Input
Amino acid sequence: MKFKQIALAAVFALVASAPALADVNIGVSVSATGPAAALGIAEKNTISLLPTEIGGEKVIYHVLDDASDTTTAVTNTRKFITERNVDAIVGSSTTPNSLAMIDVAAEAKTPIISMAGSAIVVEPQDGKNNKRWAFKTPQNDALMAGAVAAHMKKQGVKTVGFIGFSDAYGEGWYDEAKKAIEAAGMEMVASERYGRTDTSVTGQVLKLMALNPDAVLVGASGTPAALPETTLKERGYKGQMYQTHGVAIRDFLRVGGKDVEGTFLPAGPVLVADQLPDSNPVKASALEYINAYEAKYGEGTVSTFGGHAWDAGRLLSAAIPVALEKAEPGSEEFRVALRDALENVHDVAGAQGVFDMSPTDHTGLDERAVVMVKIENGDWVYQPD
Output
C-alpha cells in the first residue's frame, strides 16, 4: 500500500509539473457609441455569445469601445498588444477604424478580423505587406454591388445616381458600384458625398434631383444612411431607391420610417434566414445565431452586424485548435500559427455565408453570402431570384 501511495504521489507530481497552455486572449474593439453605435452595439452583444473554451483552452475576450473614432481604435489596439498580450484582435465596426488598426496589428504580428465591409480592409495597397495579417467577416463591396447592379438591370434601370459617405466606406462602394453598373450596361450619372455626422444633405440631393436618375444608390451605413433617402422623398423623388448591406438594422427602419418603404438592398442571409428555402446552405447556421442572440436579448433584436462578430467567432473556433498544435498562446509563434490557420479555413458556415479563405482571399465569401431584400411594411422581405 505504501508503495502505491508513493507511486501515485509521483504521478501527481509529474502532472502538476507539466506545462499548461496559457489562456487564449482576444482583443475586441467595437463602435458601441458614436455614429456607428447601431453596428457596434449588436457586435458587442454578440461577443458575449462566443465560446469561452476552444480546443480545450480558456478563451478570454477583452472588449473596448472605440466610440466610432479612429484614434481611439488605434489606442485600443495598442492597449490589447502591450497590456493584454492578445493572440488576435476582432474589430472594428467601420472601415476607417479597421484600416487605422491594421498597421498596428501587423507591426506586432497579430492577426486581426475586421467587421467592416470594404474590400480595402484586406486588399494590399502601396506595396505594403500589412494586409496579410488582416481578415474580415462582412461580404466584400464588389459581391454586394454586383447583386445590386443585377437587380437594377432586371428592374429596367438605365441611369443611377450615387450618394455616400465621404470616407473609405463611401469611396469603396462608389468604385465597386460604378464598375458593376457600367458592366451591366447602365450609366452612373452622379456621385455625391456627405459626412457620417452631417444633419443635412439638401445641396447634394438637389444635384441628384436635377439629373433625375432612374435609381439612387446610397453608399452609407447605420442610421445616417437614412438621411439622403428621407431628403430625396421630401423633395419628391419618385425613382427606385437602393441601399447597401450597411443598413440591415432595425434602427434604420425606425429612423427611415415610411420614407424607406420599397427600398432594395443586398444583405447577408441572416437578415431573412427564416424566409429562406431549406436548401439554402447558410440557413441552418444563420438560424443558430439568431436563436442564440434572441434567447439572450429578446425576440426581433438580432441584426446582420452582430452576425459579423458571430462569424469572427466561428473563424477563431476553426483556427485556434490548429494553432494550438504548433505553439502556446501568448507567444509570437502562436500568433503566426493562428494567422496561418485563419488563412486556411475552409467550408466554415457562419451567419452570413460559408467561409473559404486562401492566401489571396482573406474574406472567403461567395454568392452564398448575399440575398436581395426589399423593405415592405417596415420589415425585410426576401426577394427570390
